[in-house]
Design a protein that fits this description.
single chain; mainly alpha; 8 helices
Length: 144
């Protein structure tokens, strides 16, 4: 069993690069302070439970991978089990067309998908944080 979680910051940085996110983006989305985020990335601090959860969602990785850099065999099998993936006709058509494209065009297409997905995630996280802010204000008003 791993007792000392090392390289969490390295994994956070790697995944941020893959998703073309900056520390400030993650701070805005998750509500994690800039100072805390810097400490996580630089390996000066291990994120607390809530920060780990938020980071795993924004970075689109499992909590286990974020902490250890490993995935359980069960998790890896589920990712590779194509019978669990249900696709619409449009999705199958899109994949068929994608496979016909030249490599450079495939990369351009993936870039567009990543951009749109990241925009969606940022918007979704912003709405979630706004809802949380509204709930906190309501709690504060009730106790006043």
């Amino acid at each position: 069993m791993i007792e000392n979680f090392t390289d969490i910051g390295v994994r956070i940085s790697e995944q941020m690069s893959k998703l073309d996110l900056k520390q400030v983006d993650i701070c805005k989305i998750t509500g994690i302070s800039k100072n805390a985020m810097s400490n996580y990335v630089n390996g000066n601090r291990v994120p607390d439970t809530m920060a780990i959860y938020k980071l795993s969602k924004v970075l689109k990785v499992s909590i286990e991978w974020l902490l250890t850099g490993e995935e359980t065999a069960l998790h890896e099998e589920n990712l590779l089990d194509t019978e669990q993936i249900r696709m619409t006709d449009d999705e199958r058509d899109m994949i068929a067309k994608f496979r016909i494209l030249e490599y450079e065009d495939q990369q351009d297409t993936l870039d567009i998908i990543d951009m749109k997905y990241n925009r969606h995630i940022k918007k979704e996280m912003s709405l979630t944080l706004d809802d949380g802010e509204i709930a906190r204000k309501a709690d504060t008003n009730e106790t006043a």
